[in-house]
Amino acid sequence: MEYFNAQYVLFVGILLIILIDFIRQSLNAKRKVFMHYITAAILTMSLISTILYGNMNIHLFSETQYSQFITGFMLFISLLVYLFILSEKKEHSVVLDIAYLSAVLGATLVVISSNFISLFLSIELLSIASYALVYMNKSNNALEGAVKYLSTGIVSMVILIFGISLIYAGAGTLSFSSLHSISYLPFIVGVSIVVAGLGFKSTLVPFHMWAPDTYESSKSSVTAFISSVSKAAGLIALIRVFFFALPVSSSFVTALFISIALVTIFLSAFLASVQDRIKRLLAYSSISQAGFAFISLAVLTTRGVNAAVFYIFAFAIADAIVFLAYDIFEEKKILYKKDEVKMYGASKIASITFFIGMLSLAGFPPTIGFFGKLLIFYALFSSGYIPIVILLFFSLLVSTFYYFNVLAGMRITKGIFKKNTKQVIHKEQRFKEAILIVLTLALFAGVIFA
What we know:
The chain is mainly alpha-helical. It is built from 19 helices and no strands. It has helices spanning 6-26, 33-53, 67-86, 94-112, 116-134, 140-171, 176-180, 188-202, 210-217, 220-242, 251-273, 278-297, 302-331, 343-346, 348-362, 368-382, 386-410, 412-417, 427-445. The longest helix is centred in the middle third of the chain and has 32 residues, at 140-171. The protein is globular, with a radius of gyration of 21 Å.
């Protein structure tokens, strides 16, 4: 079973989908639903293979102490998001299956990359497939979001290549294991540029410009994938490079990381508090969560990295919940904060899971977000960054303001005790609500990993 790993399953699955679609078109068969079922089966098999056999371990890719856990939750979220997309009434193209599997494959390869070449190719595979997913609806807004995503993606690609070339010029190698054995690297500029290149994928300020527009213009179910799995891959790439590869435990790098993280947290919290559109508020909230994960990495200690990995898992699940729940609200034309009162009437289960997901993002107990932030505070405090802990506490007060502004507007308690007229709920919405329940249960089950 050496080759029964998630990455091999996904790669063979992509080739299988292409082959079956070619045969289908040759036979002039118009039904494509069975193709989507095959894609769901491939994602399920890859999740099972990760649990049983872990990840592939070859020259350019190698497992780490956390890679099986990260790959597992990425595939878990990806499977549920895909089933959510599949439950929609509209007929989807086979391009969706190929693009989605390619994006998931790229995300899992990022987790186990052990060389700058494999890391760059994995990120580009994820990015190119994500551009296609954003344009899945083929609307004018989706086209605008995809173009902005593509434009910033090209810029980040160029920046990343340039930073990698500087690192290679200073070290003469691109292998993470070889870089780690070097005691001094005269390429601090290259390191800074790589931060910028990976910062685009992770939506760190000031490399976040594409995220609000792209999140808002794409389908909310696609946004759920980009804000959870895709962003998690970008943050994991930062961990792979700056903790397992480069010996960058210098005061300059630490100050640079902490500065970027703090600006990301505070600026996104401020911008979220002044938003009127719900989805745009959620986009800036997602950017803020990336800042929290990055600041835990900034201490460059094992405890900090463990806290960052757990927090990536925590906010990825919560982000997937709130964006998938909002997808149901978006179909009911609930777009602005003034429309929040209609959420409970649109879907009771979606409004409750949305409420819980927002509480987790805000960091309230007993949600997984609370334990994630607690681990980050502990990692910073144990490393002597007490002023940073105080600043983060104030940022939580700011974020609590806009989170509770949304939650209060939902009037969910009033809706529970109010006698509502019976609504006709289609089976598609019931299926979506079932997926939200599974994700919400995972939100609380994940606390055991803390």
